[in-house]
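In response to reviewer comment 3 from the previous cycle, which asked for concrete evidence that the modeling workflow produces usable outputs, we include below a single protein chain processed end to end. The sequence was submitted unchanged, and the resulting structure tokens are shown without manual editing.
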Amino acid sequence: MTWIIGVDEAGYGPNLGPFVMTSVACRVPASCSELDLWQVLRAAARRTADADNGRLLIDDSKRVYTTRGLAGLERGMLATLWGEQLSVPASLATLVEWACPDDGEELRQEVWYRGVQTIPIHLTVDDLQSTAARFAEVCAAEGVGGWQVRSVIVCPPRFNALLEERGTKSHVLAHALTHLLRWQRGNLRDEDDLAFFIDKHGGRNTYAAMIQHALPDGIVCTAQEGPARSAYRVRGLGREVQLTFQPRADAEHLCVALASMTSKYLREVLMLEFNRFWQEQVPNLKPTAGYPGDALRFLQAIRQALEQLGLSESCIWRRK
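The workflow returned the following structure tokens.
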């Protein structure tokens, strides 16, 4: 058996709100490890370009969000990965505890975070349960299972602190990826091979040093490094471990697409609470997605409220 693990992020570019990176893993028969999981699970899952036929839309989060909004992310992510939690409506705090328990305390330090947003937001539990049951049925028939999810949420104070350490945003990516690589390695069955597929970090082509830091008891061997693909094998860990970085990995690998959707969903729901809090402080405040340009408009609008609450700008503003 082989574990296929996809990694992707959301919220790297904004000045406001959290950055989220997620890994999604599933265990597949060795015969499926080189196959397209969209094809393997075609009875239940599809890409944006495929015929609908009632199947789950799993794709790059930007495509899903553009065509189906938050409801599209919610259906695709909750029905595939959160199925066992769908017995009753839950809250954002429950979702955070499930996906990223290590970051719950940091989130609770944020003045805007309450964790009270009801989950699901746009869909019903009954609708999601039936969709989740169909996805689980197809996975079981194909020998695909053991779905594992882990996210890292980095709020502005830690984001800025990581910038201070190295002076570059790529250090934030490396920090989050290190956590996810270590967690997945430690929580997936020891005898199974690990195949990581990771959405490439901007224009970067070299990742050996980052991997070596994350998995210090292994020996990183470089197979290929270039704009189209950077591939590595880590020896000495008692099993086969491979990592492939490529641009638009979420278009090539279903697990990366689910990681992208999970990261985007978490960030968007967190931003609902972020905007709700500041709209309580500043009447008639237009919400923001936190991206450059509009983020400055929002910051200027809440500046007086920040001062009244005794908060510094760096508490909410990411410097890069």
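The longest strand covers residues 19-28. We consider this sufficient to address the reviewer's concern, and the full set will be provided in the supplementary archive.
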